[in-house]
Amino acid sequence: MTTATAIGSLPGTEQRDFDEAVRLVLGELPDLPHLPELPGRGATASMTGRALAVVAELGVDLQPAGWRLTGGGSGIDHRRARSLLGQDLDTLEEQAQGFTGTFKVQVAGPWTLAATVEKPRGDKVLADHGARADLAQALAEGLRAHLRDVRRRLPGLQRLVVQVDEPALPAVLGGKVPTASGFGRHRTVDLPEASAHLEWVLAAVVAEDAVPWVHSCAPGTPLDLLRGAGARGLAVDHSQLSAADHDHLAEALEAGEEVVLGVVPSTGETASGPSDARLTEATLRWLDMLGLDPGTVGDRLLISPACGLAGASPTWARQALTLARTTAANL
Asked: Which of 38, 75, 247, 291 could join 12 in a cystine, given CB atoms 3.0 to 4.6 angstroms apart?
């Protein structure tokens, strides 16, 4: 049976919005709910802040230019990010009592962190070979402790999925990440190093008996590299796929791996937006193009909204999750 899920982010700026978001995903996505992310609550709830709350043994603080390694202890904003994650997990634990299915959590990947976090003296971690390795290893180690905490809070959990978000990976590999001055670009990262850092993080997920997925909504993401690094699920936006992407996704499905297809628009839609029938037809056309039978793909294909629900209205966010669920049921 085809399953519905979502990428992670949802609209909202207050703690009560997070409480409602948890109720929403548990109600609308019963087969694969996830820990919501509400970046509208500020830097401590952003993709980077959320991941830094997980990172082990590295001090970080929030500067006017963004998150920066301190070279020492954690700053007040880093402690706030960790506290907020703990509060959110408390809310999840309270609302998901008795949950016994599959659950998903998300974390920014090592290359997206390297491209968004600065070194103690400025410029991105991406500029320093040693610093980016240290950050990736600290993420892997912290993620293991985080997953143990999630399992403790959801003792009936049957399967845990970890979605590693890497929207900055194409820019890292293409030498398109700007330097601190804004006048230059950081050098490209070699493919073996890019793969190795991802492998550390994905291997930590597997070591905790969880399933590693990688998500990127950026065009040009090397899906073959993600699979080679250990990803057993790929989450993509249908509208961003290239011809090569279609081939890699078909190979993944044929190999028994999972693909999350973001077919529901994330923003700019109203109540007169696409129907589940139209989305079902689009998905079936995509499978036909790949030469795959929906019956043989089975539960390896999942349906989700596209990336970016944090920018949607609460009304559309709810409708998008409903459309994902009904489209998956149709399939």
From this structure: 38
